[in-house]
Each structure stands twice: as structure tokens, then as C-alpha cells.
């Protein structure tokens, strides 16, 4: 009877922690990244200045602004939980060696665009926004949600793996919100799978680098920056656009398969986490 009660209590604790983690994730994704930009846009319209999301500079500045707000909010949450005491910030050569495969993915993720009609300010803002994305998302998931689970279940390898998988799963599931932004469903579901793998990779690096949150923030920022250069590629004209009906599932499956080596390496890193 006592064993059953403890088991039920453990299930309730797991459920409560997951709900709490989802609440923090929704704060980050819905309020900070969805609602806040709309509030800023509406206020701007009220004062007679229209913010155009199609303008890259406006998009980057808005992205930087809302993520700075998010970073400040989660800095407060991290301090409130005393999680900042867990983190290290000194970067060593060993971290670079451990991260060799992910650095390779960053290089492979570089998209070269057309810089002829882009000014330097826009490029700088893209870089700052990419880094702000990295810092914000890592502070939410590796700085807050993962330690939340590790505090409860981080004393065993099984508990560590559970914490990593659940926090990474939450990170990936939030990308389902892109279904409401006009993206193709197959593209969104593909994104959910590979972002889960990326979440596992960052969690493994976080744990193997002695919980070095700064290193994870920098790598995440560089990864987003690499793909951010693709924003400057020439816009397809009407006769170059691909019909949604003709989209093949094959490229998305290939894209997912390309992340399998990263998943295997990340699970290998997690095996050695004490």
C-alpha cells in the first residue's frame, strides 16, 4: 500500500513538473514571441507608424527587442530558482573538442544569400537577432526547464535521460505553433523532429561542459546565424514559386536523417554524464 502511494505521488510530481515546465515554455513562446510583438505593432500603429514584418530590418529589430525582454524575464526566474549557482561560464578547449560535431552542423547550416542590396546595419541586426535567439532559447530550456527536472531526477542516469528527453520534447513541440503561420504541415512536423534532436544535443553539451550555459548560448546563436544569412537570398518570383500540392516528403525525410548522427553522438555523450 505504501509503495502504491509513493508511486502515485511520484506520478503526480512528474505531471506537476511537466505542467509547470509547459507553463514556462508557453510564457516564452506565446507571450514573449507572439503576443508582445503584436502589442508593440499595435502601439506603433496607434502613434501613426506602421511596422512592416516584410521589412528585414524591422523584423530583426522586433526580434531583438522581444527577446531582450524574454532574457530579462528568465534571468529573474533563474535567479529566483537559484539555478544560476549551477552554471559555469569559463570556456575551455575541451568544450570545443566535445562540440566538434555540432560545430560541423553549424558550418553545414550556413546559407549564403545575396548581399548586393543589403546594407551593413541590416546584416549586423540579423547577427544580433540570431545571437539573441540562441541566448533566449537556451536560458528558457537549458537554463530553466532542464535544471527544473534535474533538481528532481538528476541523481540517476535514468533520471538525467528522462529530464533531457522531456525538456527537449517540450522545446520541439512548441514549434507546432508554426502550423498557424502558413507553413506546410510536413515542414512543421519535420522541424519538430529535428528540433527535438537539437534540444537533446544542447542538453548533452550542457551537461558534459559542467553546465556551461554560456557555451550552449553561443553555439545556439551561431547555428541560427548560419541559417540567417539565407534571409538575404533573392525572393522567388511568381513563376518560381513551388505549389504546395507538388511538395515532396523526400527532402524532409532526408533532412531528418541528416540529424541522426547528431542524435547518436548526443546519446553517447549522455552515457558518460555522472
TrEMBL record:
Ranges where the CAAX prenyl protease 2/Lysostaphin resistance protein A-like domain occurs: 123-225
Q: In Gene Ontology terms, what is one molecular function of this protein?
A: endopeptidase activity
InterPro entries linked? Rce1/LyrA-like_dom (IPR003675)
What highest taxon heads this organism's lineage? Bacteria
Q: Where are the transmembrane segments?
A: 14-36, 56-78, 90-108, 120-140, 160-180, 186-206, 213-229, 249-270
UniProtKB keywords:
Hydrolase, Membrane, Protease, Transmembrane, Transmembrane helix
State any GO BP term from the record: proteolysis
Q: Which organism is it from?
A: Anaerosporobacter mobilis DSM 15930
Tell me what this protein is called: CAAX protease self-immunity
Amino acid at each position: 500500500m505504501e509503495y502504491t502511494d509513493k508511486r502515485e505521488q511520484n506520478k503526480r510530481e512528474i505531471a506537476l513538473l511537466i505542467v509547470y515546465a509547459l507553463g514556462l515554455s508557453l510564457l516564452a513562446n506565446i507571450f514573449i514571441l507572439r503576443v508582445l510583438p503584436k502589442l508593440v505593432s499595435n502601439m506603433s500603429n496607434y502613434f501613426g507608424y506602421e511596422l512592416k514584418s516584410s521589412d528585414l530590418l524591422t523584423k530583426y529589430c522586433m526580434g531583438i527587442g522581444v527577446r531582450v525582454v524574454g532574457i530579462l524575464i528568465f534571468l529573474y526566474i533563474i535567479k529566483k530558482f537559484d539555478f544560476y549557482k549551477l552554471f559555469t561560464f569559463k570556456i575551455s578547449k575541451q568544450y570545443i573538442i566535445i562540440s566538434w560535431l555540432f560545430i560541423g552542423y553549424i558550418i553545414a547550416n550556413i546559407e549564403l544569400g545575396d548581399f548586393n542590396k543589403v546594407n551593413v546595419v541590416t546584416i549586423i541586426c540579423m547577427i544580433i537577432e540570431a545571437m539573441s535567439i540562441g541566448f533566449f532559447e537556451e536560458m528558457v530550456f537549458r537554463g530553466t526547464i532542464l535544471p527544473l527536472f534535474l533538481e528532481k531526477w538528476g541523481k540517476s542516469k535514468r533520471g538525467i535521460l528522462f529530464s533531457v528527453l522531456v525538456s527537449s520534447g517540450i522545446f520541439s513541440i512548441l514549434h507546432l505553433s508554426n502550423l498557424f503561420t502558413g507553413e506546410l504541415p510536413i515542414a512543421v512536423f519535420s522541424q519538430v523532429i529535428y528540433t527535438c534532436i537539437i534540444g537533446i544535443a544542447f542538453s548533452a553539451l550542457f551537461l558534459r561542459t559542467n553546465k556551461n550555459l554560456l557555451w550552449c548560448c553561443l553555439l545556439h546563436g551561431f547555428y541560427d546565424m548560419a541559417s540567417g544569412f539565407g534571409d538575404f537570398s533573392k525572393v522567388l518570383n511568381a513563376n518560381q514559386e513551388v505549389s504546395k500540392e507538388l511538395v515532396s516528403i523526400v527532402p524532409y525525410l532526408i533532412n531528418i536523417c541528416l540529424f541522426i548522427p547528431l542524435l547518436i553522438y548526443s546519446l553517447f555523450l549522455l552515457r558518460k554524464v555522472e
